[in-house]
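As described in the Methods, two query proteins were run sequentially through the folding procedure within a single session, without resetting any intermediate state between them. The first query and its resulting structure tokens are shown here.
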Amino acid sequence: MTPIPPAGEQAPTTQELIARASALVPLLRSNITATEKLGNPAPENLAALRDAGLFRLTTPPDHGGLHPSMRTQVQIISEVGRGCASTGWIVANHAASTEFTLILPDEATQEIFGDNPDAIFLSAGCAPDARAERVPGGLRVSARAPYASGCEISDWALLIGIPLYEGGQVKGAVNVLVALGEAKVERTWNVAGMSGTGTNAMTVTDVFVPERRTLVVEKDNLDRLEELLSPTELVKGNLHSLSSLVGGARGALDLVRETLARDKPIAYSTYRRAADSPAVQQAFTEATHLIDTASLHMLHVADEFDALPPHTELSRVARARARMHSASALARAREGMQKLLDIAGTSGFAHANALQVYWRDLEVGSRHAMLGLPMILEDYGRALLDVGPTITQYH
């Protein structure tokens, strides 16, 4: 466990933090198969991330949190994704979820981080039949989160938007922070990609949550759901997630470059070195440019957040624009990946080749409901033309 720097000791620089993430790429890549088989990041991955302090990007400062700029955060997560997109997704979800908890009272953050500043967090929406009821000292909560990334390895889960009932009537909505030891996990993630994220279903049944770990919005204020989850913070959280996928595309680029450097021939051709082929050179150049473009879109959005004054919400148009840049980042990354697969040929799809893992992770992860292009494109058009209301929940 990385110790909290003593008072007065300088925190790691931006370059040091990014270098720590980059240094983990070979380990993370070597564990890609193990991560897929386990359904979660390999234990060696998690230990290395803790040792590097990369589970402290958004931990409260009083508990050893680093809080680098958003640009630095996405660069770090992208480097983790370069080694393993599923592991990067866990780091991303953790960073966003930890930041969501910073609005809780100091008493709660002390309970959460006091003995474990490297505690792992997740956040997840709940099925419609979730419910919370007031009891002395807090709430009784029953809820099922169908897609809870990292629910088998996390310490805490922030469950979002649970209806609050009183006398059989909905009187508001709540977010609650629960310990994963109180939840039941069902292995439901049987999907072609992102297999190492452990995005399974978790259920809490009649669990008591003390008031300090709850955030309540009364029924009269349900049009102000931003009090449960800031729209700007949610867009920022989405950016965390996509950075792991852009990093995965970069990892695929690394693999193809390494293959070409080993003098890979082109079957059924006169080329004994694929790298000598002008067609291959062009395809690799185009793939590199597309993935570079994806990174530029990603970093542009990060810079927008870094320029935003503290405790300020982005406007509706600005949020929609940021999401459009995010969707464009993933679209360019997918286009670049296709060119890399064309260069690699059928060998790139071999089970033993990590390239096909990067490909599957990108294809699945980039279609997450909050990152998917069709709705983002429609919402951006509505915002630009001032056509309301927004079609995306929370955004």
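Immediately afterward, the second query was submitted; its sequence and tokens are:
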Amino acid sequence: MRTRLSALLVVLMGVVLVSLGVPLITGIASDEARTLHTDRMADLSLFVSRAPFGEDPGLAEVSALERDLQRYEELYGISVTVYDAARRPRFSNDVGSAELTPDEDAALDTALSGRLTEVWDRIEPWDTEPLVAAQPVVRDGDVVGAVVSVSPVEKAANRVLARWSILLAAGLVTMIGAIALADRLARWLLRPVERLDEAAHQISAGDLSARVPTGSGPPELRRLEASFNDMAVHVQGAVEAQREFVADASHQLRNPLAALLMRLEGLTISSGLPGVSQERQVELMQQALADGKHLAGTLDRMLALAKVENAGAPAAVLDVAAEVDERLAFWMVVADRRGVHLVRRGVSEAYARHDVGALSGALDAVLDNALKYSPEGGTVTVEVRDLPGGVAAEPVVQEALPIGGPSSAPMLALARAVGEASSEALPSGGGVEVVVSDDGPGVAEQDLPRISERFWRADSAEQEGTGLGMSIAKTLMERHDGSLEVSTSPTGGLSVHLVLPPPG
């Protein structure tokens, strides 16, 4: 491709040089012809003025004219002949044949008709025919004769050849420089393409870590390299996520599936034994059903995690406090059933930039985890904070909801009303933090960094689970520059911090 591009650039440069050179070459030949014609006509004017036409030309005038003609021929090698109106030669420095050539005859006719010979088109290096010029001799308004000159063109043709040679040499040097420049330009233009091609081959061969080094080439191709690298990063991430998903699925589903098959096999065997009661068979079937549900739940959570890792919506400015209140209204029913109090604290309005669907999913996963591990009669506190840099509204405090108390919707509406009456909330400028705290058993300090790992569960965990909830929440929050952090709450349980970037 580089050779073809270089050839194309060279051809274009050649076309440019030819387009400029042909007019220059033609102009040089025409300029030399005009110069020679002008010189000859000036010389002929001198001889015309001194031509002794009349009834009694003086001897001195005749002698002076003959002397000048002879001297002119010696200096320039140009023959000059003075003719009368009857086309008879009167004076001449030409010792050759007196017979007129066709060009001389035509020039003489032109002069005797009272006109000057026209300018020659051009003189070219290979021209050998002499140039003929003629001028009429006018006395008292009548044409009484003509002066005709025959000029050799060898010197003029040599001058044209010399100027053409200089021009062609300059064109040749320019062409050589153009070839070198075209090769360097083609290399510069195609170097990013070659790097892209090499990286694409490496990726197609299985090396997903291959990247295109940037920093040289046209801006458009540098942007293409950056886009290619971004695409390679996404492809590598997608492939690695797929591999991790397959590996995790095979690992996590193997044991539950084996247990389910064993229970089904035991159920099949027990059905044929006479000493097994119907109650025992029902118990075995319920255990098998529980294992199947656990297996289905694990698979559903894994598919949900894979979905949130590979899909997303664009970020938008949203009221985080309003979204928190909406999710609390949904989870209030679950909290009532489990005997857990929900407390809403913090500002009444807080604006951040994120995906509302991702925030809702993360809140659901965190609240589900908090309610699941909180003891009966425990409390889950949800606080919305404006981070430094924003203008915070007055805090809103929702008292603990008693078990069997008012429905969630009226109580949350009351919380919103208290916040609106207390202050005028302004959009946050430093981001928003949502803290979900519980008073459950908590996690050991050294295990806190592992909470968001896939399938990780604390050794002391008593509740059923897949270990994917916090991983899903972390993945959802990390979209659009959000984050999820876990710490120990003041009551001994967990505090999950969901941080969202500012709206600006």
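The chain has three domains: 2-158, 219-308, 314-500. We note this only descriptively and draw no conclusion about the first query from it.
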